[in-house]
């Protein structure tokens, strides 16, 4: 967590299960990027992904999993990226960083001040 926060220079939160993560994410201002394991207790990452994309389709969701079927399911549910386990920590940094840059450099809405 600390290394990821340092690498992207952003606050990073961690949750022990999908229900706690969803409770936090339900606040529209809570997070721009969600990184989740497919295998989580109480609510798996695919269900979390479905809920996030249904309620907040612009939030970026990155899933990780150890089975080839996880990647197909994640893509079908709308994942923005998938990281196959095991992975090198630099792979995670690269994927997350690419979205951090994308989120930061979106043009402002002409109507916003």
Explain this structure to me?
With 113 residues, this protein is of the alpha/beta class. The protein contains five helices and three strands, in the order H-H-E-H-E-H-E-H. It has helices spanning 2-8, 18-25, 45-55, 68-76, 89-104, and strands at residues 33-37, 60-65, 81-84. Helix 2 (18-25) runs parallel beside helix 3 (45-55).
Largest sheet: 3 strands, parallel
| Fraction in beta strands | 5-15%
Q: Topology as H/E string?
A: HHEHEHEH
Helix content: 40-55%
Radius of gyration: 14 Å
Strand order of the largest sheet: 1-2-3
Shape descriptor reads globular
Instruction: Report how far the terminal alpha carbons are from each other.
Output: 34 Å
Sequence stretches where pLDDT stays below 50 over 5 or more residues: 105-113
In total, the number of strands is 3
Number of helices: 5
Helices and strands: which structural class?
alpha/beta
- Overall pLDDT: 86
Q: Give the oligomer, counting copies of the same chain as homo and different chains as hetero.
A: single chain
Outline the secondary-structure elements.
Elements: H1 2-8, H2 18-25, E1 33-37, H3 45-55, E2 60-65, H4 68-76, E3 81-84, H5 89-104
Parallel strand pairs: 1-2, 2-3
Helix pairs in contact: 2-3
